[in-house]
């Protein structure tokens, strides 16, 4: 299950190298992936704020920064209380590498073309990460508090996905 | 918190009408619960944010705007004149509810 999900994530987030040899991740590795994915979306949002002049796109990006930072702060507080540290792993590193490439693509765009590409990437990125968290992570998390944190974060990120879908539909409908 | 009908509500309360009721709207997992609420003018509506991210309860008409409801916080307003309010979160436009003031 995890390998299939990783493969899906690899495709959707535009990955250069396959993750064929991934083994199952433990709680701390899954947490690291989730925090990394959250930080990546903050970086996408910062890029959007530096390029986009669209009010709705900028508002969405600001919400991404606000919410993902809040989720990561909650994770950091939980980790401190449990006296544990999230563990770096191959999937986190792959996500970071893929995101760097995607940001390089987005940086080449301006105006409506950037807005469309940014929002479409947000739809795909949230859809894929949410799927991995729901199907591959949450069923396998062992610590009850970590599982609850994942479930809370997933509810928020699913809201982001719907928000991005609405925004993408508006952009497509307006032709902008 | 902005609610133009505060004065109206105070006037109603001073007229010897039925006692004002309190209504709770929970915000959890980016959803208002209940999604639809009927209240009387002068009642108190309290939004409780059980999420870890901030929200607002903002009427499209501009009649109600709680401002930021921080994680774990609650904000109350007094229901104003009769009408139907379409409420959304300013940050999460997929969050919607309806409040009917009678």
Strand and helix map with partners:
The complex is a heterodimer of chains A (176) and B (102).
Chain A: H1 2-12, H2 27-51, H3 55-82, H4 90-107, H5 111-137, H6 144-174
Chain B: E1 2-3, H1 6-13, E2 22-28, E3 31-33, E4 36-39, E5 44-49, E6 58-59, E7 64-65, E8 74-78, E9 83-88, E10 96-101
Parallel strand pairs in B: 2-5, 4-10
Antiparallel strand pairs in B: 1-7, 2-3, 5-8, 6-9, 9-10
Short description:
The complex is a heterodimer of chains A (176) and B (102). Chain A has 176 residues and is mostly helical.
Main attributes?
heterodimer, A: 176 residues, mainly alpha, B: 102 residues, mainly beta, 4-stranded mixed beta sheet, 8% helix, 42% strand, globular, disordered N terminus
Distance between the termini of chain B: 21 Å
- Helix-strand string of chain A: HHHHHH
Number of strands of chain B: 10
Structural class of chain B: mainly beta
Q: What's the quaternary structure here?
A: heterodimer
Radius of gyration of chain B: 13 Å
Helix residue percentage of chain B: under 10%
Helix content of chain A: over 70%
Structure description:
The complex is a heterodimer of chains A (176) and B (102). Chain A is mainly α and 176 residues long. Chain A has helices spanning 2-12, 27-51, 55-82, 90-107, 111-137, 144-174. In chain A, α5 (111-137) packs antiparallel against α6 (144-174). Chain A is elongated, with a radius of gyration of 16 Å. By secondary structure, chain B is mainly β. In chain B, 8% of the residues lie in helices and 42% in strands. Chain B has one helix at 6-13; strands at residues 2-3, 22-28, 31-33, 36-39, 44-49, 58-59, 64-65, 74-78, 83-88, 96-101. In chain B, the strands form three sheets. Chain B has a four-stranded mixed β-sheet, with no helix packed on it. A four-stranded mixed β-sheet of chain B has the order 4-10-9-6, with no helix packed on it. The longest helix of chain B is centred in the first third of the chain and has 8 residues, at 6-13. Residues 3-14 of chain B have low confidence and may be disordered. The chains are: A mainly alpha (176), B mainly beta (102). The A-B interface holds A 59, 63, 66-67, 70-71, 74, 152, 155-156, 158-159, 162-163, 166 and B 29-30, 51-54, 71, 91-95.
